[in-house]
């Protein structure tokens, strides 16, 4: 069935749930009027439906491959990429000074989701470039910006991130790649990097690698790491692609899914690179890139959840099997209906959290407010981990709705699961996200968390008198979250880590309840969103009790169980 | 890493958790002494580790394929099958009269799990044959038994089940295949069947299809369906494979996983068949086959959970990444430890439930007791659905433990998920299992459920004074289950169906708590099982609160949400 971009859903979210008017009311984003926003969502939606969605199966059936050192991409991907670039969708949020549109990140986030729902493996390419644009905007010298930003924003060149090495995955500080000063303003970068998404392609003029490596005087660990721009083709005096750099794609991974996206092992042999940011300041620069990339990956999960849901709903509405209390199709069976309703309710929850995070990022950019920065920082790991977990869970349920057909590849239901599975792993595993939430994001003693919980409780309080059946579950769950947070911030780090994943889930559960409540109230009693909120609040939100108990268990019992006990 | 068959785990379960001594204390199974049982588990375990486990990747990398109408199986599968057949593992529980060992089903169930953990796609073959043996033992004429049972039990011939047609999946009664009386004691069977696991192979002398079809005077629906034995090669007067029957494999499915198992579309064109059971009594005969096959499929889920757990643990013990509070390997990280502990605790819970179900089946066989029959009937859908759900969940966590390597196919972590995914679908989807639990299995007004809850509460009561921290969570969760059951049996069927899946999960959660408690008590304070029980009881069992709330929501809210609302 054809993918339908969630254009009206985003309009509703912006107007009634996450308040984009806050963002467009700032000087920085005043040009993003409601008309502009609508036009952009509609135009992007059209491109996703018409150009990108037809490519989704191509990527799966005809994976990117390496031929004599050259990456050949899946059929149609070159045209799809050209459409993305020509539409200006890569540089939507980038600085107009270099050709970007300077639009709110909230809009880019929405368009990214649509592109991901249409064709995830291709969408990952501009997502990487967007992260690189942002890192360069914040950390590169003017000289580098002048050369690279216009090309990246126009899409003529693509960007990649090179962090991981075989012995340095989640522990980036263990990396061994080296950089030596050439004495002419350039550096010689040497090392092997793995899991490089879109490490090469056959449709962009150049591929620009941001590579983490250690200078000779760099200390061990993350504090001794620097960031370098290492282009595939070295720009000549006019800024056009020149001679080939000393780097190559060694191999492509054979993966569970996302076959259209070439995942490369990259080898740098004294490749010419330019320092981005300060010496030994690589991690700070990389974090800029990673934070928004994390939200972007959360959006990938939501994108697949939306697509898998549409796919399953379409199948279920056509499929007849047995007698149901309502209609011929299997949507009439209570259990199938439960699955579909859950899929839709979870997708809404995850999307709202991501959209709220994007608004917080825009408000940080527009106002430099410490509160908004803290809000964005708090919501980023939740948006990433919950969005991708929901992507996996909704894809799983999508397969289940299909019955036997779900296991047959031709249906396409299984591809969603295979493609989305990696999103819970890359850009920091969901375990890492959860640890980030309970450690770094709680260094304020829980202040940012309490501010958000206050907001939720105040809102629920306001709805309580008129609609206690909707408001009370949200208020009560928020109270549980508050108590759990109060407990959490008093614990040692490792006791927090032991409950980090259920804590993040608990937080997301409550946030989902809050946004469902906002949507129900805005859409009115008896509306579709009202009914969907009912499903979420009374079937899924009650999970908060079990999650809170899990969090409060601490770490001790896990260590009492020795490695030998685990192997027994 | 090498698969290690859970031999000692089964010995412990039999001795201390599910009480196999009840079974071996009956006249029927008195020959299955503790020594016999041990020897069988060990011998089967050895075969699984040495012969079957090395085939697991072969099946994935070199799928079964159809060449000019002939199925070619994966490299080594013929030898693996021969080892299974020669070991007598197919007919372990079959009647000695026809060459079987007459052993308890509990033992067969354990060996099936081990074979499935070693190589799931090959194990599915004898699992199907075992179901066929049982159906023939119960329903076939002596003439048919004499021809088929010895060959099936020895493994010279294989058996399949043919239920599904494109328009008749979960709704078996909608099938259109026909059978006409040839007037010579045989029938002409015509129709197309889909999803036929191991519909053909190149290593057995013959393939025996049990096919559901409708006689000319068969009414619509399940009451007009009859069961036929339709062999690939028609046995001659001496019972040896003779002329080819009018049937063929039309195509094989291209599936998400389980590539080593050929899933066939079968075409019957007036094929010669023999009636099994009474005319129009096909569903009754099929149910015999299906009930134990359901437990067998639950065992497949547990098998994969065990294998995926071992695989992930082995990786985690080798992998070094970052500083941990305990040792160099990533098992020292609290979040990784949490995942591994959960995986192990869930696998134990699912395996105990399946083993308890197998014991109930054996007690039914040995004593014809109505209580044991009701217990077996109650536990079967729980063992199937929970076992396979845990298979999926543990495989998912196994991928997560591997980090980026989990998404790379060479690691093998992803194969577990791909292979096991279908187990939640075939032999009745897990939704169907849940509906069976809340409807058919509650036709007694909940009597069988209450009997089991009584048993759990009495046990927990007995442990309370000495170990309240372990016993109280079990007792309280059992009370929640009792109250939820009391509510459930008062509802209309469709209100039950709307909460069927969370109800089954709730039941499984409580049972898991019960068996963990038994294990902890038997193994003693501070033992590995004690510590694992602690993890389950305080981290996972608390989910029961949210599940109970979900169950009690009924169906109304799901139907208020119209198809149009779902598509909005």
UniProtKB/TrEMBL annotation, chains A, B:
Matches recorded under InterPro entries: Acyl-CoA_dh-like_C_dom (IPR025878), Acyl-CoA_Oxase/DH_mid-dom (IPR006091), Acyl-CoA_Oxase/DH_mid-dom_sf (IPR046373), AcylCo_DH-like_C (IPR036250), AcylCo_DH/oxidase_C (IPR009075), AcylCoA_DH/ox_N (IPR013786), AcylCoA_DH/ox_N_sf (IPR037069), AcylCoA_DH/oxidase_NM_dom_sf (IPR009100)
Domain Acyl-CoA oxidase/dehydrogenase middle: 161-269
MF-aspect GO terms: flavin adenine dinucleotide binding; oxidoreductase activity, acting on the CH-CH group of donors
Keywords of the record: FAD, Flavoprotein, Oxidoreductase
All residue ranges annotated as the Acyl-CoA dehydrogenase/oxidase C-terminal domain in the record: 281-440
Cofactor dependence: FAD
Annotated EC: 1.3.99.41
Family the entry assigns: Belongs to the acyl-CoA dehydrogenase family.
Function according to Swiss-Prot or TrEMBL: Involved in the assimilation of dimethylsulphoniopropionate (DMSP), an important compound in the fixation of carbon in marine phytoplankton, by mediating the conversion of 3-(methylthio)propanoyl-CoA (MMPA-CoA) to 3-(methylthio)acryloyl-CoA (MTA-CoA).
Name the UniProt record assigns to this protein: 3-methylmercaptopropionyl-CoA dehydrogenase
Biological source species: Litoreibacter roseus
């Amino acid at each position: 069935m054809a993918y339908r971009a969630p254009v009206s859903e985003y309009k509703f979210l912006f107007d009634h749930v996450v308040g984009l008017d806050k963002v467009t009311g700032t000087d920085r984003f005043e040009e993003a009027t409601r008309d502009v926003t609508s036009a952009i969502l509609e135009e992007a939606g059209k491109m996703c439906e018409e150009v990108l969605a037809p490519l989704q199966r191509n990527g799966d059936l005809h994976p990117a491959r390496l031929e004599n050192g050259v990456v050949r991409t899946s059929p149609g991907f070159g045209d799809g990429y050209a459409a993305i670039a020509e539409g200006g969708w890569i540089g939507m949020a980038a600085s107009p000074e270099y050709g970007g549109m300077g639009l709110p990140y909230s809009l880019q986030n929405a368009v990214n989701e649509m592109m991901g729902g249409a064709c995830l493996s291709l969408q990952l390419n501009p997502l990487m470039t967007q992260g690189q644009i942002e890192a360069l905007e914040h950390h590169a010298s003017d000289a580098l910006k002048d050369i690279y930003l216009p090309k990246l924003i126009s899409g003529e060149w693509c960007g990649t991130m090179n962090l991981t090495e075989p012995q340095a995955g989640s522990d980036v500080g263990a990396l061994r790649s080296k950089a030596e000063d050439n004495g002419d303003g350039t550096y010689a970068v040497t090392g092997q990097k793995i899991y490089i998404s879109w490490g090469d392609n056959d449709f962009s003029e150049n591929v620009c690698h941001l590579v983490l490596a250690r200078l000779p005087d760099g200390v061990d660990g993350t504090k001794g790491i620097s960031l370098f721009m290492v282009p595939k083709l070295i720009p000549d005096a006019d800024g056009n692609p020149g001679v080939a750099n000393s780097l190559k794609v060694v191999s492509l991974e054979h993966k569970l899914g996302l076959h259209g996206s070439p995942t490369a092992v990259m080898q740098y042999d004294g490749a010419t690179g330019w320092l981005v940011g300060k010496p030994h300041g690589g991690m700070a620069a990389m974090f800029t890139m990673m934070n928004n990339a994390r939200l972007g990956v959360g959006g990938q999960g939501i994108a697949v959840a939306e697509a898998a849901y549409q796919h399953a709903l379409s199948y279920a509405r056509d499929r007849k099997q047995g007698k149901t209390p309502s209609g011929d199709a299997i949507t009439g069976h209570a259990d199938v209906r439960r699955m579909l309703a859950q899929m839709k309710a979870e997708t809404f929850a995850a999307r709202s959290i991501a959209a709220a995070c994007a608004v917080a990022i825009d408000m940080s950019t527009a106002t430099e407010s410490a509160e908004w920065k803290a809000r964005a920082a708090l919501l980023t790991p939740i948006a990433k981990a919950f969005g991708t977990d929901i992507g996996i869970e909704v894809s799983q349920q999508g397969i289940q709705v299909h019955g036997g057909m779900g296991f047959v590849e031709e249906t396409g239901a299984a591809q969603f699961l295979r493609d989305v599975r990696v999103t819970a792993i890359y850009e920091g595993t969901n375990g890492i996200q959860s640890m980030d939430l309970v450690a770094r994001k709680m260094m304020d003693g829980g202040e940012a968390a309490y501010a958000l919980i206050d907001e939720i409780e105040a809102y629920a309080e306001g709805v309580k008198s008129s609609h206690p059946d909707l408001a009370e579950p949200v208020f009560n769950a928020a109270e549980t979250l508050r108590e759990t947070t109060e407990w959490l911030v008093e614990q040692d780090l490792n006791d927090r880590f032991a409950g980090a994943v259920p804590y993040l889930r608990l937080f997301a559960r409550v946030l989902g309840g809050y946004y469902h409540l906002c949507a129900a109230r805005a859409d009115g009693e008896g509306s579709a969103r009202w009914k969907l909120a009912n499903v979420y609040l009374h079937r899924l939100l009650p999970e908060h009790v079990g999650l809170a108990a899990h969090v409060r268990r601490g770490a001790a019992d896990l260590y009492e169980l020795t490695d030998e006990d685990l192997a027994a």
